Structures are given as structure tokens and as C-alpha cells.
Amino acid sequence: MNLLQTIAVVLDSTVRLSIPLICAAMAGLWSEKAGVVDIGLEGKMLIAAFAAAVAAHVSGSAWAGLGAGILASVALALLHGFAAITWRGNQIVSGVAVNMLAAGLAVVLGNAWYGQGGRTPPLDGAARFGELALPFAQGARTHVPGLGLIYDEVISGHAAPAYLAFACVLATAFLLKRTRFGLRIRAVGENPAAVDAAGISVAGLRYAAVAICGLLCGLGGTYLAVAQSAGFLPQMTAGRGFIALAAVIFANWRPWRALGACLLFGLLDAVAIRLQGVSLPGIGLVPVEAIQALPYLMTIVLLAGFIGKATPPKASGTPYVKER
Amino acid sequence: MSAAPVALPRWADNALVPLVSAAAALLVAGLVVVGIGENPLEATALLLRGALGSAEGIGFTLYYATNFIFTGLAVAVAFHAGLFNIGGEGQATIAGIGAALACAALSAMPGFLSAAGFLAAPVAILAAAAGGAAYAFIPGWLQAKRGSHVVITTIMLNFVAAALAVYLLREIIGRTGSMQPETPDFPAQVLLTPMHRLLAPLGVRLPATPLNTAFLLALLALVAVWLLIWRTRLGYAIRTVGANPRAAAYAGISPAAVTMIAMAISGALAGGLAVNEALGVQHRLVLDFTAGYGFVGIAVALMGRGHPVGVGLAALLFGVLYQGGAELSFDKPTITRDMVVVIGGVLILFAGALDGLFRKLVAGVLGRGGMG
After folding, report:
1. In chain A, what residues touch B167 (CB-CB under 8 Å)?
2. B361 at the A interface (CB within 8 A)?
3. Which structural domain, as residue segments, surrounds residue B204?
4. Could you tell me whether strands A131-132 and A158-159 are parallel, antiparallel, or unpaired per DSSP bridges?
5. Chain A residue with Cα closest to B325
6. Domain ranges of chain A
7. Are the beta carbons of A217 and A48 closer than 8 angstroms?
8. Is B353 on the interface with A (CB under 8 A)?
9. CATH code assigned at B174
10. For chain B, how many structural domains are there in total?
11. Which of B166, B348, B357 is the closest to A100 by Cβ?
12. What pLDDT sits at residue B3?
């Protein structure tokens, strides 16, 4: 395998590994932009992965899986909203609850229904999202040197939710930046009192943002179980929801930068997998764990203000109390 | 936490509200049991018999409760300073590494072990506490001096600790020639005495269970935390900073110093998990020994209202659920012990995030404030 091909393969797995991160990061962005801190991205993706795998198995349709995944995730998101918005509860506490609830419920139900320690039966055929070949991918590979290979390996050949995920980044950036709705969402995260004074419902906007957050986590979780893997495994999100949270902070709560951060963290993951057990000249056996810990360490360093500065939306984390 | 919307008498606030939310959480779990086609009353009976129906069951229950006392206290102490320490898992992991390093050092000193073996266990326990404290001090320092939110940094540090543990156990302190990521067995002098052996000379015959002297340490920690929080100058400073950092600063208390100290104490308490598991039961450090106890500690602290008495009772409840759940899953394979995680999650939601709802419910029942 020549160098170009190696690079193409690594970039391809970078994209694959980034998709759940991208979905969850966009989800976190919506919630936090509206002033609702969400550390329950992990749990929502996990419950979505479980619901999607079960629905896809029962119905034999991957799209039905996506629907179920989104429903389950939105339900948890609304629960978070109920606690955080309606009852002005502690948003961190509620997020922890969502994560634990999802981790427990998925395994309890999965084990009760299938008796395989929480795993769901393997999916195949139409129950799983297949790889979509973009037009001319094969032709470009043979006729266009270099770029053709990249097009075929890296850009073409992903599952439908992967392309949806990229569309969601575009939609998130556009909606938040260029529409009235987006402006209101951002306003409610910076200065909810002003939004309230303008006669717009703070709770309504926050619920909308939280529901969108659930939808996006649903997409990410579904991708994990029904496209990347062929079924649900306990703890299959493996901290991706938290890496996405890190990506949002790293990107200073901006959609395109968050996409970049997710791709960077995906690349680190891809490189770590590639270097597993590989001995490099001068370094020796690469400590893969160091690469895996890098996203978390980078976020800590960033948060500490050693490089750049992280400025979250002003009202994020604080419940809105109407003045009386 | 958010400001109290309804006024309740103290006994209702401290005892009734947690009880009601715990009952509601168990009710939800019962509904899940119904949902998977089992009889919740039968399941409850099996669970209680498994946890409390025999001396062996009680031993296991108290052994699990030991873990929850430590992790619950860790969360509670940070709560009093207004800090939310989600890093119990990571701090316990590093505490375990600290204990393992101390054991490795002690193993290399056979002379010391044979001459002053009685000092070995305290050294290992202190090493665990120091490891946990140091690892919690980092987010405390970052919060106090650099303004990074302790919630985010402790989450991130959990993953860093996990990665570090994998690397160390595989490459540095792991058992050579073993496929399992675990350390060699600790020297016999550092191990904590099992309760059944401790009490045997007194004529008390107990079945062999993992319950060990770490349980006594946990009880001691409950008393120590009560003394610390309500009977010392430092505890007063911690509570003041937790209630209002600006007022504390005005009163001459340094919120930065209190933040760092409270986090370090919190981490040292989380280290108790490593003491019970590594020094008390497994007698070596194994990967992922924290097994989610750190997160359940959040539920314990919330349900216990941050008070040692409450934490002790909540830890006991989760001990019953853990041990009973294990027995239950023997008889009813469809109900796995992950049900406890569900209950923990629902309890965190009810006793923590939906506290306002439950306070209002209780107020309504008591005829104060009313509904709506």
C-alpha cells in the first residue's frame, strides 16, 4: 500500500469515527446556545443506539431504526428539559441522571428481550444502513489520479446518516446564524430576560433547542448501532458524548469550528487505531492511550486559558426565573 | 442548587422529601419490572431476602455500602463547597494506582515489612487517599485559579485516568506475563482484615464475605465528615463558600483556597473506594475496579442531602439494591443488576434535578403552599 492510499484509508476512518461526534456536538451546540447545559449527550446517543437497533431488528428497516432512535433520544431530551426548564433543576444533575438512566435502561431491556447481556441481535441487509457510492466514484478512482482515490475512499462510500450529519452541520450553522429563530435561540442563551421582555417564550425556545438536541443525538446514536456497527452493544458510545462536549468547548460554541474539532478528534482516534501495536523508529511502541486521552487533555488545557479562551453563552446553566 | 420555591418544615425537607423521591424511583423501577413481564412484588421479596435474609447477604450488602459511603461522602463534601465533583471514578482510579505503587515499594522492602508490618496497611491507605486527593486537587486548582468549570474538568479527567490506568497496568505496574491488566498480588501485610476473621477470636461466627475493615473506616469517615463540616472552622468556611462565595470573601475566607481544599478532601474520600476494593477484597489492582460506584455516589449524596446520616442510609439502600439485585438476577435472569443503575439514574433525577417538583408535592400533601 503506497502512502497516498494509507492516507486515504486513515481519512476514511476519520470520517466514520467523526460522524457520531459531529451529531452530538451539533446537539450540544443547540442546547448550550439556548442556555441549557447538556452533559447527557452520551446517554441520549446510547438510548438512541439501543432503540434504533431494536427497531431495525424488529422491522427490518434501517430507516425505522432511525425513527425509533430519534424518538427515544428526544424523549430523554424532553425529560432533561422538564427538569431543567420547567422545574429549574440543576442541569448538570439532570444530565448525569440521563446518562445513568440510559446506560441502565438499555442493558436491562436488551437483556430482558434478547438475553445476550444487553446486546441486540446482529443486523443485516435492509436493517442496516449500507454504504452509498456517490456518482462516478469508481470511475474517478481509475481515471483521476490522487483526487479520484480520495473522492472514492474518503468522500464516497458512507452510510446515509453520515451524509445527513454533514447536512445537519450546514443546517445548524445556517439556522443559528442567519434566521430569526436562530437569533432568538442565541438570545435566550445570552440574555433570557431580554427575550422575555420582547414577549417571546423563554421556555418555548429552550424546549425547541432541547428537542433539536435530542434529534441530533438520535441521529448520532443510530449511526453507531445501525451503520457503523451491526447492532447495539452495552456502553457502545464509550465517551463519545463527552468528546463531543469537549469539541463544542474547543470550538468556542461555533458550528463550523465544532465540525473541525470533531474531525480532529476523529483523526486522533483513527491514528490511534492504526498505530495499535506499531513500533515507530525512535519512539518504540506507541502508547495508544496517550493519543486517546489527547482530546480530553486538550480541552482541559484550553479551558484553563493556557491557549485561547473559552467563552460559553452567558446564561448557559442558569434556569430562567421570570421577574415578578 | 436552585433556591427553594416552597417553605417546608425541616423534618419534611430532610427526611420526607428524600423518602418520597426514593419511593417514586423504586416505583419507576417496579414499572420497568412490570414492563419486562415480571412480578415486581415477587422481585422485591427476592431482592430483600437476598440482601438481608442471611448473615452472608448482610455481609455483602455492607461491603457494597462501604463503597457507596465513600463515593457518596466525596460528592457530599464537594457539594457543601458549592462544587459538583463528577470525577469520583477517576479519583478512585488514581487512588488505586497510588495504593498499587505503595504496595510495589513495600514489596521491595522485605526488611521493613517483617520489622514493621503493622505500618504497611496505613501506608497503603494513605497512598490511596493521597492519590485521590492529588487527582481532585487538579480540577480544584483549575477552578480556583484558572476559572475552568470543575464539572467539565472532572469529567475529562475521568477519561484521562482510565487511559492512564490501562497504560500503567499494561506496560509499567502490571503483572508480567499476564494477559489481564492487573498488578501482582499485594504483600499480605497491606491487606485489610476480613470481618469474619476479625470477629472470629471474639467468638462471633460469620460466613466468609468481602466485608472487611474498610467498612469501619467508612463509618469513621462518616463521623469525620460530620465533625469537619459542622464542627470545625474549615467546615464553616466550606459551607460559607458553598452558600455564597462573595459573602465568604467579604468575611475573609478565601474561596479559592476552600475550593482546592474541599476538592482534595473529596478526592481523598473517593480514594476509599480503592481501599475497599483493592486492599480489602481483590488484593491487587484490576482495571475498571471503580465499576460505576463513583457515579452512584452522586445519587447517594443527593438522596442523603449531603448529611453523613443521610449518606449512610442512602449507601445502605444502594448496598441492599446491589446485593439483592445480584441475588435477584440469579433467580430471575431477565432482571439484571443494571436495574440498580436505572434506579440510581431515576433517583438522581428525582432527588436532584426534580427536587423542586417533589418539594411541592410534599408541601401539597402537608397542606402548605398547595399545588400550582
Report:
1. 287, 289-290
2. no
3. 39-333
4. antiparallel
5. A108
6. 18-238
7. yes
8. yes
9. 1.10.3470
10. 1
11. B348
12. 46
